Amino acid sequence: SARAAQPFGGGYVQPAVGMSGDFDQPLAETFRALTVSSGPGGGSVISPAELQRPTPEELAEPMRLDTRGDSGRQRGQCPPKYMRMTTNALPNSPATKGKAALPLGAIIKPMARDDAAPVAVVNFGAVGVVRCRRCRTYVNPFVTFIDGGRRWRCNVCSLANDCPSDYICDLDEHGVRRDVAERPELSSGVVEFVAPAEYMVRPPQPPVFLFVVEVSYAAVSSGMLRCVAATLAHTIDHLPGGERTQVGVITYDSTLHFYNLHGSTPQMLVVPELDEPFCPMPGEALVNLSERRDVVKQLLEKLPSMFGATQATEVATGPALKAAYTVAQHVGGKVSLFSATRPTVGDGKLLNREGAGGAANGKGAEGGGLLAPACDFYKTLAVDCSKQQLCIDVWACHSAYADLATLALLARHTGGSVQHFPAFSDVAAGERLSRALQHSLTREQGLEAVMRVRASRGLRIAAFYGHFFIRGVDLLALPNVDEDKSFAVEIAHEENEIGASTACLQAALLYTTTSGERRIRVLTLELPVTSALNSIFDSADVDACVALTARLAAEATLSASPLTGAEKLQNACLEALRAYRSLCPPHAKTTAALLLPENLRLLPLYTLAAMKAALYASPAEARADERAALIATIANASATEATVLAHPRLFQAYPPLEKGPNGLPAPLPLSAQSVQTNVAYLLDDGAQLSLWFGRDVPSEMLQAAFGWPSLQGVDLATLRLLPPNTSPVAAEIHALVDAARVGRPAGWTPLRVLVQGTSDAPFVRALIEDQTKQMMSYPEFLLHCHRYILSKA
User: Fold this and answer.
1) How confident is the model at residue 660 (pLDDT cuts 50, 70, 90)?
2) Quick one: average pLDDT of 280-285?
3) How confident is the model at residue 361, as a pLDDT?
4) Helix 699-706 crosses helix 728-741 at what angle (to 10 degrees)?
């Protein structure tokens, strides 16, 4: 049982705000004590019954959002869907933070989608947006109104500000404005202000979509060109922006191809010049979609046949991107790069670095080895694009090494994303690419955005993580920001001790909606400040801790090596558990007990899972492009997405088990001991669903699910389930897959079929509780944690 190791004591009540410095360190009262006993041969063991695992309730809903109890629903607090703190009680000093040894920061998802509770929009009109005149914090539920409502005190810097005359309101006997219920900015932790003219440096940008598509032999033969063209032809009717939307198409192989879409039929213009690529029709490569929709569709439908007989193998990716910059720099927008071949000619051409000795292991002069960029061309271009409000998404559909570590810089510095489809073929992965592309183009998104995060006096934002370009010291430039993008911040102390009993964190995103309105989305959170370490541990959020530490480890991998990144993950876990043991009562601190904070009881499991990711695997197990794509995924992942990415969900698919209200059976431990060879299982790692069949699964079941009595010799990449009305088995598996897909934030999750012993390495790797050649098993890792803690006692 996952809950076999019961917590000590009753429910610990956090000290009231204001008690932060009034007592010595109290002892922890609620924790998990895992018994360490002697096993066969004299070694130490932890009983399998005491291994801490996520409960069915914790994994039933993939977007579990709130570890703050009811605080996320209290008046004024920003819901955790938008902002998650690693701990919801802040240490009062650097010394307290050091003693706790927990990461201190936040995971921020400013454009998170919440259909159940849309963000309120406030228009201050002639009053103007109400902000602190010193620190520029936006008015929020935690400011204090004084002098009969004529002034308000900033909750970040404590300055008393005058209220605009039209914003003054009487206070009640508790000092609260009488109109607070009608004022979303004073009652909700997430709100959106209509930005007045002074928040614009130019008219609001229209939605612009520029598609840069490779048309080489590899792009055609793999089916990428057909899939992309067909998807775009279908999706342009659903692009946001209405009559303001503009689109353009550039194709390339060893030459560049522009398209005049102003006539009744599209006309191609070829530019062979790569050293100084130019647009043969300046100002006309982008067209208004509502006016030229039929011609755009005509071009997209013709593209596959136009290049169907090509033999071109060289590709000029760099010059094509420079051309895209020339076409769209005057307006900005989203550039979608579809690439099937490593750049081979012109600026930005890349060599095949894979397998070059020590580089594959992340060693050598370049620090990150194959994860370090091969040249500065793409970073320089990306920074130039960011300055002109151009975001670049990279769609990598390569059959061989692509040097994604270098190409990913295009997305990293422009607020874009990296989508990786290794060994792409239209038949096997076309649906996955098509659905991901549709979601990317039609999801909720903001244009020409900037974001700043402010913290109360005594605190500062020490570092930022994600895809952006920093202007100055703390302004994140985001040419495009969407509902799936998350950012992380690390928080540090500016003073030796925070005197206040509470502290505030506020993130403000200034952006343009796709309908052309300038908006300011403001997220505000107020937290207690405490010197009590047990309060900090009791309010810790394990998902946010893992998400922030995973980003730090990914950065360490880029700057040093995968080993450095894995060590950073491990050390963060060891130090947190070591710090916690000092808080436990003497009777519990025996050498025969590993003590875990109740809120962080899954920290060792999630840490081990993150360490077993492909990013830190041996070069033989994970190629460089896979690692680079994973770094990009981690950089944009929310707290819950990071957890699901590290710790997949495993369900028995057939024979069926009893299901819960969400249509899913109880998840199984991620261990080979959970797996039988005559059963089928469904694995959900957040990005992919894998249907795994043991070698002894009955032929009748395979016949009912696929129409084949055996899968031996069948191409699994193209294998599909029979329709649900074909048989009860097919219906059962379809229902399970559909239930697993519910609630996924980034759209549709693709399904693949795996057979035991036949290319099922992804399934085996997901069994993170088992020992591997490089890594310990889960019980071994817990014992390793225990030995480390005792050595530091």
Assistant:
1) confident
2) 86
3) 42
4) 70
Contact assessment for residue 318 and residue 349, using Cβ atoms and an 8 Å cutoff: yes
Burial class (CB in 10 A: 0-12, 13-18, 19+), 582: middle
> SS3 sequence, 143-196?
CEEEHHHCEEECCCCCCEEECCHHHCCCECCCCCECCHHHCHHHHCCEEEEECC
User: Beta strands 680-684 and 649-654: pairing type?
Assistant: antiparallel
CA distance 281 to 326: 11
Structure confidence at residue 231 (pLDDT)? 98
**Among the listed residues 623, 635, 523, the one whose alpha carbon sits nearest the alpha carbon of residue 142:** 523
Q: Which of 165, 449, 211 is nearest to 321 (CA)?
A: 211
> Could you tell me where the beta strands, DSSP code E, fall in 123-282?
144-146, 151-153, 160-162, 190-194, 208-214, 246-252, 256-260, 267-271
Q: Tell me, yes or no, if the pTM score tops 0.70.
A: yes
Q: Can you say how many angstroms the Cα of residue 170 is from the centroid of all Cα atoms in its chain?
A: 44
DSSP string, 95-135: HHHHHHT---EEEE-TT---TTSPPEEE--GGG---B-TTT
Question: How far apart (Å, rounded) are the C-alpha atoms in residues 173 and 321?
Answer: 63
Provide, rounded to the nearest whole percent, the portion of the chain with pLDDT above 90. 76
**Which residues is 73 bridged to in the sheet?**
none
At residue 74, the pLDDT reads 59
Structure tokens at 207: 């939605």
A 10 A CB-CB count for 254 gives 16
| Rounded Cα gap, residues 133 and 748, in angstroms | 45
121 alpha-carbon distance from chain centroid: 26
What integer is the mean pLDDT of 407-411? 98
In SS3 terms, 339-403 reads as ECCCCCCCCCCCCCCCCCHHHHHCCCCCCCHHHCCCCCHHHHHHHHHHHCCEEEEEEECCCCCCC
3-state secondary structure of 533: helix
Dig out the tokens for 65 from the structure.
């959002």
Residues 196 and 783: their CA atoms lie apart, in Å, by: 59
Paired tokens of 319? 């010059």
Give the integer Cα–Cα distance in Å for 64 and 151. 40
Query: What average pLDDT score do residues 394-407 get?
Result: 97
The confidence band for 240, taking pLDDT boundaries of 50, 70 and 90, is very high
625's enclosing H/E stretch is helix 624-636
Q: What is the mean pLDDT of residues 201-228?
A: 96
Tally of CB atoms within 10 A around 152: 23
Q: Where are the alpha helices (DSSP H) in 375-479?
A: 377-387, 404-407, 409-412, 426-442
Residue in 108, 112, 745 with CA at minimum distance from that of residue 465: 108
Furthest-apart CA pair in the chain: how many Å? 85
- Give residue 516's region: left, alpha or beta (phi > 0; psi -120 to 50): left
pLDDT digits (tens, 9 = 90+) for 360-395: 444 433 345 899 999 999 999 999 999 999 999 999
Smallest CA-to-CA distance from 468 within 556, 513, 409 is with 409
| Distance (Å, whole) CA 142 – CA 177 | 12
Residue of higher predicted confidence among 745 and 374 = 374
Mode of pairing for the β-strands spanning 190-194 and 120-122:
parallel
Q: Where does the pLDDT of residue 713 fall: very low under 50, low under 70, confident under 90, or very high at 90 and above? A: confident
Contact (Cβ atoms closer than 8 angstroms) between residue 625 and residue 401: yes
pLDDT at 356 exceeding the cut of 70: no
Name the token pair of 558.
């880029």
pLDDT band at 354 (very low <50, low <70, confident <90, very high): confident
SS3 state at 469: strand
- To 10 degrees, the CA torsion angle through 371, 373, 374, 378? 150
Least confident of 4-18, 113-127, 529-543, 779-793: 4-18
